[in-house]
Amino acid sequence: xxxxxxxxxxxxxxxxxxxxxxxxxxxxxxxxxxxxxxxxxxxxxxxxxxxxxxxxxxxxxxxxxxxxxxxxxxxxxxxxxxxxxxxxxxxxxxxxxxxxxxxxxxxxxxxxxxxxxxxxxxxxxxxxxxxxxxxxxxxxxxxxxxxxxxxxxxxxxxxxxxxxxxxxxxxxxxxxxxxxxxxxxxxxxxxxxxxxxxxxxxxxxxxxxxxxxxxxxxxxxxxxxxxxxxxxxxxxxxxxxxxxxxxxxxxxxxxxxxxxxxxxxxxxxxxxxxxxxxxxxxxxxxxxxxxxxxxxxxxxxxxxxxxxxxxxxxxxxxxxxxxxxxxxxxxxxxxxxxxxxxxxxxxxxxxxxxxxxxxxxxxxxxxxxxxxxxxxxxxxxxxxxxxxxxxxxxxxxxxxxxxxxxxxxxxxxxxxxxxxxxxxxxxxxxxxxxxxxxxxxxxxxxxxxxxxxxxxxxxxxxxxxxxxxxxxxxxxxxxxxxxxxxxxxxxxxxxxxxxxxxxxxxxxxxxxxxxxxx
Amino acid sequence: xxxxxxxxxxxxxxxxxxxxxxxxxxxxxxxxxxxxxxxxxxxxxxxxxxxxxxxxxxxxxxxxxxxxxxxxxxxxxxxxxxxxxxxxxxxxxxxxxxxxxxxxxxxxxxxxxxxxxxxxxxxxxxxxxxxxxxxxxxxxxxxxxxxxxxxxxxxxxxxxxxxxxxxxxxxxxxxxxxxxxxxxxxxxxxxxxxxxxxxxxxxxxxxxxxxxxxxxxxxxxxxxxxxxxxxxxxxxxxxxxxxxxxxxxxxxxxxxxxxxxxxxxxxxxxxxxxxxxxxxxxxxxxxxxxxxxxxxxxxxxxxxxxxxxxxxxxxxxxxxxxxxxxxxxxxxxxxxxxxxxxxxxxxxxxxxxxxxx
Lengths: 518, 357
Hints:
The structure holds two protein chains of two kinds. Chain A is an alpha/beta fold. Chain A is built from 18 helices and 20 strands. The longest helix of chain A has 16 residues, at 178-193. Chain B is built from 16 helices and no strands.
């Protein structure tokens, strides 16, 4: 436990003159769980990529593994030194069974004759050794997310690691429902007991307190501090991550709102657990939380795009009887999904066809769509949102991300929605276009629509929203209203994922939310 | 949190619908459209074929008789290809279209010749039954959720079997002469079948390209998820497309049985390839990337002229199959080639070291 396995000394990395890592030094001991924390842009990923041999750091950087100098820029050298990486994309093949996945790329598969029985036996041994109770003949596709992660981890540590290597887990729990995190934690604990060193990257503070022995915080590419977990408190960690002290919590101010236009009650779907919230006319409501908290999927479910969801959705007091995008749209809900290239638009079609699709306006008995008339209509919207180029016949895919998103927003504003739901409205959008989008959303709200933005961008939420709901575990756990700051939103997200830090606030927020609904 | 956003963004951008490896009707259309052949290149090719054959055999090829024979010969293919266009536009294959038309023709003729039904009643029954086959396809594809390629292939095989079973493998017919006259009439010297086909083309062109129905149908085929989120009941459009395709096959079957009078139970199979070849080639013409009616007409007249010309030159029975097959292989071969090139390009685009954290 006290023997240093990896010694990182003065590692720096520049990208196009920007310093991504600034003389980072830290040591990872044998059999310890070392948590790596930091906000976005803090350098965590860059550091991991240096260790993985993806990035070559600047001269003067040194990484020693068991006293031997690590050759930089070589994935092979990194693998030979004992580094194993588990990313969010686990790299498993869904169509194969567990045993086959465990043996993918391993030496055992170099035989001429592959024996299923032998594979199953060795896989069963490997799984048992790590206390993973799974039948190796099961298909990976049918496994819950946590068990997939465990298969990937077992594969990583069984792949030629004798006497324990260094397992780097990059947000291993991000995609896991809260109840499955436990199993993964147990496996990590067992591995560290066997002498495997673990670098644990996460945004969830309570996991750090649960599993880590040591925690290192990075900010702006530099190490802010390395502390044993027993000597640090949650608030102190947040301050280290953010670089500022936290603002006091402020109660919601419900005065500047109109009538409720959208009431979601007890909505349950994949990743959402009995979530309820209300949107008022004239407000821009923000929904946020850490990845997996439910804010990413609730708007799609509200719109009826997720089959098998239950709960009631009311628009201006009238319930949507049978869920489905068509009915939601008819009731006055518009929805812009996050992945506009695959779900938000038809990329091979023209801007005109994309913009008019949800609200085609045929004329006469022959139901004729006039291209000329559509072009005039489209050009008007392109001017209004300052889309460049303003050519209605341009291919959607040829537009820049910001202009694509403006077209998507224009398409829905053209339907004059009562409620406008947007998932991650400014992903891949440049700063100038962002401001234009915010202005349009604000205008829509001023015109009486209820606008809801689900976003992981705290700065965006603080800039546009009058009220922000923080999600955790698939439901709303906290409400914040103006004045909002990015820091307070980030802190609230982390608190929401760590119920032990401030249970009092959660209860008040949830009850206040209940009051508004009734 | 922004790391995850970046990841999210990458996956959103990496998931290029054109880069997927499975062949969908939309990706075929998109890639063939991406060939950037001249939009009316088919017309030039058609002119070249006519000039070439005309030079080789001026007495036999450059006659009104050849022109009407090509047009008449392609008219039933046109009606079928229009039906298939509806299907492919909605993003589903109908491989049962050939056997459905053969089945329908045998049904119509045996109802008239063997069972003594009136031509009108037999025709209506045939169209109805063929549309019902389309409905079975729809149940399998939308209701059960099978891949349309597999479902319609299975239905096609079963239809072939039923056709053989019902006909006993022998030629069915002949149809009453009154019935045959609906296909034999030649106002102003133009075969009436050609007029039927062109009239249907006009209707299909208007509906597909100038009405909300057509726009939503194309949207369903282009990207079902995105179309659903735009408020389109995509499942209904797929069902409608498959039933329409069956209906079109029924109509073609009636026209076919009227024009030939008596028919071999294997006649339907010969339509499958030319119809698909025509639809795929159509996506390179006039409106690149879409299954469109004008492009279809060019493609089918191109194929028909080529087949006719080579037949007149050599008269060999294998020429139509060879020509249609080569045309299809060249078209789809180019599709796959371009798809691969596209994937390779997109990999190159994604691989440069990602933005620093």
